[in-house]
Amino acid sequence: MKPFLCSILWLLLSDVLATYHSSVGDPQLIAAQSYAQTRNHGRPPFRTLNPQKTDSHCRSRPMDLVFIIDSSRSVRPGEFEKVRIFLADMVDTLDVGSDATRVAVVNYASTVKIEFLLKSHFDKPDMKKAISRIEPLATGTMTGLAIKTAVNDAFTERSGARPRSRKINKVAIIVTDGRPQDQVEEVSAAARASGIEIYAVGVDRADMRSLQQMASTPLDDHVFYVETYGVIEKLTSKFKETLCGPEPCAMGHDCEHICVNSNASHYCQCRNGYVLNADKKTCSPKREELKAEVVVEDPCKCEATLAFQKQTHAAIQQLTAKHILPVDSDTGPFLQNITSRLAL
Fold it and tell me: Is 70 within 8 Å of 109 (Cβ atoms)?
């Protein structure tokens, strides 16, 4: 029993020492592994991809986003299912649409397959169904070829990418668990020079140097590492912070009542009982509310009538003052009544 326990302890110690020696003295490597998850803690519960379920999302900035996923022989079927769930979770965090974020997926091993283009799906459930149908290619790790294919065939206007004049961000997220079998440094540099922002996600046996060669700078913000596919879903929240910009209404607005976020813009609404004016910013009470506030003028009070009332009132006062009209207990109240009515 003791030799068996010693063997287990020795294996664990060897794993710790190997991890330590691979990173000691390399600040960039340590920073890139800052998001690493442990093997034995924080594992999410088992999940399967449900294309119909959509979670709440943040207000992501519009972009042309291409996922480049490694499905080589080293990625087991159960692990590849975790990749599909990760992609679906990422889709849930985005504002997917023709005028918002467009998404494409490039699948690679020794060959490269574009699963769907930026112009293929503008609806989340449809996109997630397409993700659920992706199958691993099972051989090789031609990461450089995959990046080149993404640049030449996925990030193009004919494939759904928007023109440079629109100034829409172009983003690539690469997920791999191995060492590339081709060169990635030059092709990645060319992709970045063309305006593509690259995030590199390494899993398990991924080569950290290659991740650093592929990713945009600063590396701390663009290189991520997880120890197993079982915890890759946890990166969703990190990407949510990175890709989601502040909501337009939070950045300031000129709405009189209510500001409503809408993709990268906003629009104004009014509270109950009010309608939006033609300027689309200010609000006015509805007509039924206005009726209650309007004081209806007496239509009889035209200028001629008012003048007649004043003259008659003055004449009665003169007659009363000169005692031309007798004032007694009968006529007094009568004249007072006429005078008060004329004053109205």
Answer: yes
